[in-house]
Each structure stands twice: as C-alpha cells, then as structure tokens.
C-alpha cells in the first residue's frame, strides 16, 4: 500500500484548468510570482524562433555533417530532421494555444503524465538550453577570433586557456535577458534580420559558383569506420552488433540525428505563451512559421555549400566562410564570418530567456525554491534565476570544450518532443471538451508517428551520448527527491485538502 501511495504521489497531475487560469488573479502579498507581461506578437514569436534555430546549424553543422556522415545528401538529413520537428511543432502548437504558459513541455507533462515526468522534462530542458548556449557562446568566440584575429588562448577552441569571448557574450546577453522581454525581443529581431539576410546572400551569390559535379555521388557509398570505439557507435548499431559506418543511408540518418541540434530550441517559443498577446492564434503561427522558414533556408544553404565545394574538402569549423574562400571570394567570407557572430548572438540570448522561463515555472510549482523565481517589479522577468543560469553558462563556456557534447542537445530535444507527442494524445482523452484554438491534425495517428520518429532518431545517436544523458537524468532525480517532492505546491495542496 505504501508503494502504491508513493507512486500516486509521483504521478500526481496539475489540473489543466488551474494552469490556464493561474495568472488571472493578482498575486497575494506573500506570493513571489507576479504575472508575466503580455507583450509579444506572432512576428515577435517567429523572431525568437528563427533567432534560436538559425545559428550553429547553418554556420557549423552543415560542414561537419556533410563531410563526416552524409555527403551532399546532408540536404536530406536536414529535411528529415525538419519533418520530425514539424510533427512535434504541430503537437506543441495545440498545447501552447490551449495552455499558454511558461514551462512549455514541462507544464504539458505535469498536466498529463505526472509530476515526476514533468520534473524529468524540465531537467532535460535545462540541460538542452544551458549546454546549447555554452556551445554557441564558444562558437561565437571562435568566429570573433577569426574575423578580428584575436588571441586563440582567450577566443579560440582547441588552444583556449579560458574562453573570455564566451564569458563576455554570455554576461552581456544575460543582462539583456534580465532587463525585460521587450529589450530581448528588440535585440533578437534585429539580429534575425541580419542572419536571414546573410543566408539569402549565401544562397544568391553561391548559386553562381555551384558545380553539380561536386554533388556526385549524391549519397556516397557506405564505408566502415576503422578503429571506432563502441561507445561512439549509434545506439542501434551497438545493440545489433553492426559495424559502425559512414555515408550511405545509415550516414544520412546519423546526420539527421546530429543536425537535429540545428532545430533544438524552437520549443523555446512555447515558453513564451504567458507573454503572448493572443496565444490562441499566435503560438501555432509562430511555431509552424519558424520551422517552415528555417527548414527552407537550411536545405537551400546545404545545396549551395555542397555544390561550391566537394564534401570531402569542407571545413568543419567555418564551412560557409571557407567555401567562399575556396571559391576566391574572400570579401564574401569576411561578410559571412561577421554575420555569423551576429547570428550566434541571438541563439545565446533566446537560450538564456528560455532557461529563465523554465526556472520560473519550476519555482512557481515549488519544485525549486520559490524565492529564486521571483518576478522583478520593474523588469517583469525572473531576474534571480536568469542571472544564476547566466553565471552557470558563462562558467561552462569559459572552461569546458563542449563540441563533443553537442549530441546531448539533440537527445534532450528529441526526448522533450516525445513527451509532448504523448501529452497531446492524453489530453485529448482526459479533456475532450477543453477549448483548443488550434487542433493538431490526425490525432492520435500523427502524434504517434511523431513519437516513433523521435525514438528512431534518438537510436542513431552515440552510446556515450545516451550514457551522459542517463547520468544527467539520475542527478536530476536526486534533486527532485531531496527537495522537489517535499516542497511541491501540488503535493501540499493535496495534503491540505485531505485534512
């Protein structure tokens, strides 16, 4: 009986109606949580979405995935990842329109499959956004070093002692994120204009230098990877005992799992539901519009890149700038490198904003100390949690080479997408009459397909990535059982109601 009672506590769920109306009334004097201000439009949401999605994926992963895994068929890899992300986006759109709240998939899990799973998702999202911000900050520093020829010891990657460039940009953007959502959206939207413009520039100019012979063979024949460690194999190959290979169909799928990093973070838009003026209409448009625009840009840029330079000769550090260098367009290379600095800046900013909203949701529910999620009376942002996560990201960016952990961002994103797909089906059954301004098509078939595809891509990630992910989740469970379970506001309210 005790075990049954314990399990019931772990899977207790929040009432979805309570979540929808939790900010209708002004907070009491003892409440740390004021309302988040509704200041965002659909264009702002797409600005945030494009701001976080267009970044490392175009400026770095295109070269790495093409050279090491897929060849010119990296276009197919980005398309596969984009389709999986779009299916998840339709699920997100239904939930974000119906339940516009900070916390996105964390809150969706809390209202459907239970508190323990919601905590796991939140812990997973913290990893995704923190690690993503730190990786991009180091990439930002590297591009800055290349443009201005700064000392590699303080701005490079391989020879870095302490990456001051990463620390600098994280602190500056952390201040912007803490000052307010209006300031964040203005900076983000300005940077988005720059990065979209440079993507269009790459496509327009690069098309004149495309040599279709460089894209032959389009899918290079499969090759066995000699001397590869078992831990670096995709999970499904390790389980089945198949030798690790590059290129071929397997290489395309492995690349799709890796470049999913490029789509990670678009769910940050769903975290802004409480700050959107008309979430019922704007959240679906913002999410779906973001992915359509970004997928088209990714595929087009990949076509130009692999057409300008043979995939075997691509740079894995600065592939786009280097491709224009190889084509004799040094002036264009400088423009691209400068734009990359701006493009990566917006990714870091949106990551920090998203972490603040997830932390705010956890604190409001009592799973983290409520005081650190307090809304600043002037800035209307969760300043303490934003500053805290900024410091953590700055430390990671300063000292830890994170390129080898980029896959962890993908596995975290795919895991969150899996939970959201499940949540749509569960809520359709448990709350069939709930107002849904946007309804995902073909439920339950479409969410099931979305979940299956997420699992399929996850199995194409390396064994060591799975091990690191499981260690992080285990650490999260320790935090939950040490603090969150005892201080959960939902648990306290249930205890009070039974007295």
Automatic annotation (TrEMBL):
Write down the species.
Aeromicrobium wangtongii
Q: Which UniProt keywords apply?
A: Membrane, Transmembrane, Transmembrane helix, Transport
**Where does this polypeptide localize?**
Membrane
Carries keyword Membrane?
yes
Membrane-topology descriptor: Multi-pass membrane protein
Cross-referenced Gene3D superfamilies, in alphabetical order? Answer: Amino acid/polyamine transporter I
InterPro entries hit by this protein: AA/rel_permease1
> Chief location of this protein?
membrane
Q: Which Pfam family, any one of them, does this sequence belong to?
A: AA_permease_2
Keyword Transmembrane on entry? yes
Q: What is this protein called?
A: Amino acid permease
From the record, give the transmembrane residue ranges. Answer: 42-61, 73-95, 116-140, 160-180, 192-210, 245-266, 287-309, 329-354, 383-403, 409-428, 440-459, 465-483
